[in-house]
Design brief:
The structure is a single chain. By secondary structure, the protein is α/β, with parallel strands linked by helices. Helices cover 24% and strands 30% of the residues. The chain has an 8-stranded mixed beta sheet with strand order 18-17-19-20-26-25-24-22. The radius of gyration is 38 Å and the shape is elongated. The chain starts with a strand and ends in a 5-residue tail after the last helix.
């Protein structure tokens, strides 16, 4: 046991003074002098002669005296702020994980509940003889509690503590903690209270206090929505599920547009298995979608994490996209643009295009040039080129024995486009500059490239549309739709959910409402940490944590919670003892045992 507020010498002096004071009070108590009364005649005189006297008490009620003395000494002990343990000298920085996995629940207790109890215990011990600070390890590390010697400061810091919906940046938090220890200029240590460890060297001694046990979860690993290029005005929602369990699991998947149900299906997943589901055929001017898992069943277990059971996506309103098509005649390209849900296409010949000035062309959202060079000096912001023979981004020559040997499927222009097995009769090849992305390769030749600068986007496609079976597949109108959407970035109508941690920008004075409908502060806008739908004016923006779905780790030991202290704080035990002694004194007094 250690006293944090006062030294043992001071407490001994105070205890001695208090003991003498209690003794003096008992010696100075008013005690009636005993008188033997033989009859009623002498009663009044006996009463007068037995008036109380001071310093006449030769007999002290020792039971009452000892109880009073013990109560007084316990009060002195309370003044000294008694605590279990010997304390830690120097500066201790506690890193408390605040990522989404800390919300995992086992046996009715979440990891963060266990972790905060650990932090309280360590702060209580550390402030006996040293100083303590607490770093919150969320998506962006921050100091939760500055260096202090008062354990009461922690409760104020934890009063509004919440978890982020993304992963914890433990590495960044440990670096911050290491700097705090170094700034203190004295010996110190770092305590990492988390459900996983990281490989990072720190100058200060680092100790892991693991929380959590191995847990199962079924998660939404991806959720997105987009307009259907083959059905004007309709949209498609796609959701990917993943089981992070060694046992079979099932869940009810429901997708809503507001309160309108779009999909309701029971899905069974084998251990470690994933599944992708699609909901389509829905038409709406705009959509705010929510996917959620309900009634999750895991054989011999339970779903430990709730945050990965929900994901969000939006489909923005269709706005007209002004497109200028320059061609001498291409039925396939014209048809692909005709089914674009919001493209207003104007078609002209290459000769007419050469006579248009730059200002007139800037009125269009995108230019689509078929076998027509983009003249030098024209700086339109969005251009698609099909088999260009000269000008900007022009072909360097014909490709030898063209075929599709590789494609960049991750690029937005090829999202969902299957190019495997297509026949390529003729194609041109392009030169590649620094920063270009090669979308389609034929051996060493680039058959399609995308070039992006801060103020414009250009895409060149070298496969001859008259010598390929691509135009007979659904992949072609899908490619034209996606390529046009990527090029016309300022008019993109296929917004993907934003990543947590990214900023959300709004015009000066514009109010942003969060998922709970409350205004979002400027600090929160700098790095969004909660998933859900945000509203900037009438525009909805989805932030999703689905990409952070992962297996629930269980700390370094993989065992159950450690450092469980069965006893409450020592000060509480002393207070209980005081209350018990007061009740005992009251009981003895009323039984006449203290006289």
């Amino acid at each position: 046991m250690t006293f944090a507020a006062l030294s043992a010498t001071v407490l001994a002096a105070i205890a001695g003074a208090i003991g003498l004071t209690v003794l003096a009070l008992y010696l100075l108590r008013r005690t009636p002098k005993p008188q033997v009364v033989s009859n009623v005649t002498f009663w009044m005189r006996a009463v007068q002669s037995s008036r109380p006297r001071f310093l006449r008490a030769a007999r002290i009620p020792w039971v009452a005296f000892l109880i009073s003395l013990l109560i007084a000494l316990l009060f002195v002990g309370e003044l000294g702020d008694p605590r279990f343990g010997e304390g830690v000298r120097g500066t201790t920085v506690i890193v408390l994980a605040a990522g989404r996995s800390m919300g995992a629940e086992t046996d009715g207790e979440t990891r963060i509940e266990r972790a905060t109890r650990e932090v309280r215990s360590w702060v209580d011990r550390t402030t006996i003889g040293g100083r303590v600070a607490v770093v919150r390890a969320g998506m962006r590390p921050e100091t939760l509690l500055a260096v202090t010697e008062d354990p009461a400061d922690l409760e104020r810091a934890l009063s509004d503590f919440t978890l982020d919906d993304g992963p914890a940046d433990l590495e960044g938090a440990l670096r911050l903690a290491d700097r705090i220890v170094a700034t203190g200029g004295e010996a110190g240590q770092i305590l990492l209270v988390a459900d996983r460890d990281v490989e990072l060297e720190t100058r200060a001694t680092r100790v892991l206090i693991p929380v959590g046990v191995p847990s199962d979860t079924v998660a939404i690993a991806d959720f997105s929505a987009r307009r259907d290029p083959l059905a004007a005005g309709e949209y498609v929602a796609q959701v990917a599920l993943r089981s992070y369990s060694a046992r079979q699991a099932s869940a009810r998947l429901r997708i809503f547009d507001g309160e309108v149900p779009l999909l309701d299906r029971r899905v069974t997943l084998h251990p470690g298995e994933g599944a992708r589901l699609t909901a389509q055929g829905f038409s709406a001017e705009r959509a705010e979608l929510v996917a959620q898992l309900e009634s999750i069943e895991i054989v011999g277990g339970e779903d430990a994490l709730a945050i990965d059971d929900v994901a969000h996506a939006v489909v923005e309103p269709l706005e007209p996209l002004s497109v200028l098509l320059v061609t001498s005649g291409n039925d396939y390209l014209e048809a692909a643009l005709a089914v674009h849900p919001n493209a207003n296409v104007e078609q002209i010949t290459p000769d007419a295009f050469s006579s248009r000035d730059d200002e007139a062309l800037s009125a269009y959202d995108a230019l689509v040039l078929d076998r027509t060079p983009l003249r030098e000096g024209l700086t339109h912001r969005s251009v698609l080129l099909f088999s260009p023979r000269g000008g900007q981004l022009g072909a360097e020559g014909d490709a030898d024995s063209p075929r599709v040997s590789a494609s960049l499927a991750s690029h937005p222009a090829l999202r969902g486009v299957r190019l495997d097995g297509i026949r390529v009769g003729r194609a041109v090849r392009f030169g590649v500059e620094a920063g270009d992305q090669v979308l389609i390769r034929s051996g060493a030749d680039a058959l399609a490239i995308a070039r992006e600068t801060p103020d414009r986007r250009m895409l060149a496609f070298g496969i001859d549309l008259g010598a390929t079976d691509l135009i007979e597949r659904e992949a072609f109108p899908l490619f034209v739709h996606d390529a046009l959407s990527w090029a016309a970035v300022s008019r993109d109508d296929v917004p993907l959910p934003r990543r947590l941690g990214e900023p959300l920008r709004a015009a000066a004075g514009q109010t942003v409402l969060g998922p709970d409908g409350e205004p979002v502060s400027a600090t929160e806008l700098a790095a969004i940490r909660r998933q859900g739908l945000y509203h900037v004016g009438e525009r909805a923006v989805a932030f999703s944590g689905a990409e952070h779905a992962e297996e629930l780790s269980a700390g370094a030991t993989g065992g159950r919670f450690r450092n469980t202290d069965p006893l409450p704080p020592l000060a509480v035990l002393i207070a209980i003892a005081l209350l018990g002694l007061m009740v005992l004194e009251w009981a003895l007094l009323h039984r006449g045992r203290l006289s």
